[in-house]
């Protein structure tokens, strides 16, 4: 009868020639749907002579037991349905209930090969290791290779499969040392094969040989290992344990206790199961005192890369000249045992794979060992190995692995090329998803795209209901918010952001001082920022948000001051009324759960707003640099021949202003009597004289090199910050040093640039910090009367501008909060939109009463703050890219930043050395770095890319390119419109335009299909969407899923 395509192929490999199996073409072609019937040896034809009767009787009983086990395995396999696939069986196995003993752990796999050095006894030598990717000991034996993706031959995988079929499989072995393991393995080998006593003892002796690891190079000069067999038998093994920190306390010995089961001696020459002539060989086994030395010299750097709770898988392969047939065993220990000296690092061993064969096939054994070690690193087979109940489960795991492998043609690929580990490894979860007979997966339910479904944005229908839930959500984490801030990463974050926040606050104060004639200036700005920031950091729902000044607020202040000046009103009093009304309106918004409207702010609005703020940061940084060219102009087309005629001196002003004349009258100064040409620069400026001469600039004498030196500081700060921030991924210095340099990148750059500027001595513009803690003007105090000299109706009219101000505050605050609370940031402590708005409103009222500037969430500073607190996995395997774990959520960085800002008045002596071009370079760095991750700019680049060179973005798979361009052009138009409004006198209506983006986004529903918008406009991280997309391609609604669940339940009962 012909074999159906899906019928299992029986492997007819014999036990006598495990490594010389010839596969038929039909078997090779059908291996992807292979399910193997195991043939166990049923009898013996050979006879052994000169063996004691007791041993023969025992082995005959073992053989009878082995036959019954083999028959049971065959009966078990016959119950498997013929239509089962390896993938289905693996899903059965993984779906079984998991007990504590068979819970999967991370695995470290080590490949040891037995070797004989010239003039020395044989020993096991470590040749390769796997934590995730393969690392080999180079031919010189002095170093490890770079981690690389293991490439295996298909032939070695089939040979490995035959080894599992024909070898010994011992699951959940109870053993406490390597001797006991060796004895149990050999006993089961004798049950299947007839081994002479001499061969058996030689194999046992080989298994107990010393293991030489690559890290042993550092301790070659330790005390020699000298120990007799009698002493080794008396040594007691001490149990190992794991402390609370997850570190192993390694006190277990390599040898077994004297009470461990030993084969009974059969002649007077045998002692403890070994002949006398083996005493010198067994002395090579690690001594207890040497084991203590072994752990003193553990490779601590590599140990840190191994996850806590990991277990070891040891692969032992090699050739022995006295063997006629291979000895193969797969062992799973239960529980895992720390076999000191067996593994490079002191972790308990869970699995052993032993392959010892006849002489002449060392390379073949090596490749099988590599295949075993590599397949143990596979996520699916790793879980199968832990849960397997018998040999067939292991075979199903191997067949499922073969189902997934990719074969490279020998003529198109060089196997000697080592493949670099990928930056990201695709998830293997889809291999665990239950499938149907044709291989398609059960449908995966996609997540909702582009919407906020968190409980913090749901309307409660109760007064202050959302606020109460925010408080309940944040209170359990309040203490941890301070404990989690005790980290070196947080120190780097607040040092960098303190310098980054200082300059815009002082600059904003200076601009506000010019606009309000000194009524609110730099000192008020410093105090307001410090008070608001400290309060917000202590009590806000999302303390990662950094508060700062915004352009629309400055425009609002200018318009309000001009209005008060035109109508002879008190600016500070009217401003206080507006601020109090704004705070009251914010309180109403909090009480009515108005923050739930944030759910209508999608990626379309977020990215337009964030991109605008980033571009403004970049633009203003460059603009401030060009502005230095006015104060320190360039001598263009200078005639060097007339350099000696250049001069700049003070002279009497041609047309003195009324202010200048009033100053002279106050000081009783007569202009003709002043020796103007002999005055210094400071004296000339004090008397308000004018500078004349070819060496003068717009504001007096200057140094021609300042602009060029400022440009060097500006771009040097930007490029050095970028370089140091990326230093974590470089190849230089140890991991800890690279990580520290990356964390402190911007702060180190600022310190280095300040030092260079000080040494060079070019008089660049410096940061000016107020030195006295008092109001800028003497005619105002720290508390403002809300009415003052204004008429009573000003209080009634204040709600009108307050409404506009409330929209401004609400939009700036909540859009920034949405960006910070994105899902891709993996925040675990929740957020609090209502609580954030309440704190901003309360502090806005306080600042209004004290006559201080208003502060709201600063988008770029907040994004930079979040980026500086990113957490990555510490125990990344060699070659594996660190995984992003989330953000260090805490309150200390913001608290310290704004506390230091308040104390800056007392640190003028140190801060005056910071050049302004360095701070401008920091602004440029923050603007550019914040652009990363904004999908809008990725789509913008597509306009200049041919289709074949475009990246594999998820939306390009499902949305036509013309629709992608249309969406990008719409967003670009909105961005340009926002820019025009924000930089024009109409900037006061900027919040209304941002609100209008929500309605523009709603209109796109008429131009794009809902499915297209779900890919172009949502908040899901890109890599997560790709995984969902790959899963959905295999999804198909099928009634067989119900049958699958029934089959799974029946298998669990079986």
TrEMBL record:
Gene3D superfamilies: Helical hairpin bin (1.10.287.570), Mannitol-specific EII, Chain A (3.40.930.10). The keyword Transmembrane helix applies. Its main location: membrane. It is a multi-pass membrane protein. The keyword Membrane applies. Residues 45-61 have a biased composition (Basic residues). It comes from the Eukaryota. Residues 446-456 have a biased composition (Basic and acidic residues). Residues 105-415 form the Band 3 cytoplasmic domain. One of its GO terms (biological process) is regulation of intracellular pH. Residues 43-87, 257-280, 418-456 are annotated as: Disordered. Residues 76-87 have a biased composition (Polar residues). Keywords: Cell membrane, Disulfide bond, Glycoprotein, Ion transport, Membrane, Sodium, Sodium transport, Transmembrane, Transmembrane helix, Transport. The chain crosses the membrane at residues 491-513, 525-549, 569-592, 604-622, 706-724, 744-761, 792-811, 832-856, 892-925, 987-1004. It is found in: Apical cell membrane; Basolateral cell membrane; Membrane. It holds the Pfam family HCO3_cotransp. GO terms for molecular function: monoatomic anion transmembrane transporter activity; sodium:bicarbonate symporter activity; solute:inorganic anion antiporter activity. Residues 462-1021 form the Bicarbonate transporter-like transmembrane domain. Belongs to the anion exchanger (TC 2.A.31) family. NCBIfam families: ae (TIGR00834). This is Anion exchange protein. It comes from Cyprinus carpio. The lineage of its organism: Eukaryota, Metazoa, Chordata, Craniata, Vertebrata.
């Amino acid at each position: 009868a012909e074999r159906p395509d899906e019928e299992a192929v029986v492997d007819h490999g014999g036990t006598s020639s495990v490594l010389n199996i010839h596969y038929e073409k039909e078997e090779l072609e059908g291996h992807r749907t292979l399910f193997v019937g195991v043939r166990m040896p049923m009898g013996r034809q050979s006879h052994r002579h000169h063996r004691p009767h007791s041993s023969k009787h025992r082995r005959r009983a073992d053989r009878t037991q082995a036959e019954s086990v083999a028959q049971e395995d065959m009966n078990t396999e016959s119950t498997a349905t013929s239509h089962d696939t390896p993938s289905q069986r693996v899903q059965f196995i993984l779906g079984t209930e998991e007990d504590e003993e068979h819970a999967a752990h991370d695995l470290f796999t080590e490949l040891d090969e037995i070797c004989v050095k010239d003039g020395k006894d044989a020993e096991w030598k470590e040749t390769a290791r796997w934590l995730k990717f393969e690392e080999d000991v180079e031919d010189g034996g002095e170093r490890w290779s770079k981690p690389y993706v293991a490439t295996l031959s298909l032939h070695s995988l089939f040979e490995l499969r035959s080894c599992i079929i024909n070898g010994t499989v011992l699951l959940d072995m109870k053993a406490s040392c390597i001797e006991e393991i060796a004895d149990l393995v050999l006993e089961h080998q004798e049950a299947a094969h007839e081994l002479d006593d001499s061969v058996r003892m030689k194999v046992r002796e080989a298994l107990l040989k010393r293991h030489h690891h690559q890290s042993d190079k550092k301790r070659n000069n330790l005390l020699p290992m000298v120990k007799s067999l009698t002493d080794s038998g008396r040594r007691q093994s001490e149990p190992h344990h794991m402390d609370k920190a997850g570190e192993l306390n390694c006190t277990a010995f390599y040898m077994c206790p004297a009470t461990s089961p030993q084969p009974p001696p059969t002649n007077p020459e045998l002692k403890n199961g070994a002949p006398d002539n083996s005493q010198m060989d067994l002395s090579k086994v690690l001594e207890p005192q040497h084991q203590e030395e072994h752990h003193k010299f553990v490779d601590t750097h590599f140990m840190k890369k191994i996850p806590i709770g990991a277990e070891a898988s040891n692969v032992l392969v090699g050739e022995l000249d006295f063997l006629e047939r291979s000895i193969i065993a797969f062992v799973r220990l239960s529980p895992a045992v720390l076999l000191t000296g067996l593994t490079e690092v002191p972790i308990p061993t869970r699995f052993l794979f032993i392959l010892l064969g006849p002489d002449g096939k060392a390379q073949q054994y090596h490749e099988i060992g590599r295949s075993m070690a590599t397949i143990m690193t596979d996520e699916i087979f790793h879980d199968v190995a832990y849960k397997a109940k018998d040999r067939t489960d292991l075979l199903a795991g191997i067949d499922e692995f073969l189902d997934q492998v990719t074969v490279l043609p020998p003529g198109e690929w060089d196997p000697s090329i080592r493949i670099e580990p990928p930056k990201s490894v695709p998830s293997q979860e889809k291999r665990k998803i239950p499938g149907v007979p044709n291989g398609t997966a059960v449908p995966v339910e996609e997540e909702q795209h582009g919407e906020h479904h968190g409980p913090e944005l749901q309307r409660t229908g109760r007064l202050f209901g959302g606020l109460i839930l925010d408080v309940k959500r944040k209170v359990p984490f309040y203490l941890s918010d301070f404990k989690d801030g005790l980290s070196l990463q947080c120190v780097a974050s607040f040092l960098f952001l303190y310098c980054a926040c200082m300059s815009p606050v002082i600059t904003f104060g200076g601009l506000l001082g010019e606009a309000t004639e000194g009524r609110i200036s730099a000192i008020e700005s410093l105090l307001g920022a410090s008070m608001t920031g400290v309060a917000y950091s202590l009590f806000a729902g999302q303390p990662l948000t950094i508060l700062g000044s915004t352009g629309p607020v400055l425009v609002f202040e200018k318009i309000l001051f001009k209005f008060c000046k035109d109508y002879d009103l008190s600016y500070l009093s009217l401003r206080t009324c507006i601020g109090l009304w704004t705070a009251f309106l914010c309180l109403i918004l909090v009480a009515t759960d108005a923050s739930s409207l944030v759910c209508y702010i999608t990626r379309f609005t977020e990215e337009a707003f964030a991109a605008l703020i980033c571009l403004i940061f970049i633009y203003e940084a460059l603009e401030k640099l060009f502005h230095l060219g006015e104060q320190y102009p360039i001598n263009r087309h200078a005639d060097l021949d007339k350099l000696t005629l250049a001069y700049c001196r003070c002279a009497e002003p041609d047309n003195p202003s009324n202010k200048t004349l009033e100053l002279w009258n106050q000081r009783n100064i007569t202009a003709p009597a002043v020796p103007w040409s002999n005055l210094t620069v400071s004296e000339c400026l004090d008397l308000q004289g004018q500078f004349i001469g070819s060496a003068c600039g717009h504001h007096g004498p200057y140094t021609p090199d300042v602009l060029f030196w400022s440009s060097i500081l500006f771009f040097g700060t930007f490029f050095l910050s970028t370089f140091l921030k990326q230093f974590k991924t470089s190849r230089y210095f140890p991991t800890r040093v690279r990580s520290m340099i990356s964390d402190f990148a911007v702060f180190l750059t600022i310190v280095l640039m300040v030092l260079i500027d000080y040494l060079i001595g070019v008089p660049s513009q410096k940061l000016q910090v107020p030195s006295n803690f008092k109001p800028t003007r003497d005619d105002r105090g720290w508390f403002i009367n809300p009415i003052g000299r204004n008429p009573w109706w000003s209080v009634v009219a204040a709600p009108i501008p307050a409404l506009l101000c409330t929209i401004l505050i609400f939009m700036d605050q909540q859009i920034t909060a949405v960006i910070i609370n994105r899902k891709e940031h993996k925040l675990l402590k929740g957020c609090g939109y209502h609580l954030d708005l309440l704190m901003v409103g309360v502090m806005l009222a306080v600042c209004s009463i004290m006559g201080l500037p208003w502060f709201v969430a600063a988008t770029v500073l907040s994004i930079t703050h979040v980026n500086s607190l990113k957490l990555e996995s510490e125990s990344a395997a060699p070659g594996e890219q660190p995984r992003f774990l989330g953000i260090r959520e805490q309150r200390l960085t913001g608290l310290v930043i704004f506390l230091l800002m308040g104390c800056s008045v007392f640190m003028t002596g140190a801060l005056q050395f910071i050049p302004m071009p360095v701070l401008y370079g920091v602004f440029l760095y923050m603007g550019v770095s914040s652009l990363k991750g904004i999908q809008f700019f990725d789509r913008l680049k597509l306009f200049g890319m041919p289709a074949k060179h475009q990246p594999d973005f998820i939306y390009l798979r499902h949305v036509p390119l013309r629709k992608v361009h249309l969406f990008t052009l719409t967003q670009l138009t909105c961005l340009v419109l926002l820019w025009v409004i924000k930089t024009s006198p109409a900037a006061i209506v900027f919040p209304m335009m941002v609100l209008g983006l929500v309605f523009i986004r709603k209109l796109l529903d008429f131009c794009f299909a809902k499915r297209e918008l779900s890919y172009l406009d949502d908040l899901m991280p890109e890599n997560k969407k790709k995984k969902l997309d790959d899963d959905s391609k295999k999804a198909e609604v099928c009634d067989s899923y119900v049958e699958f669940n029934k089959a799974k339940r029946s298998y669990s009962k079986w």
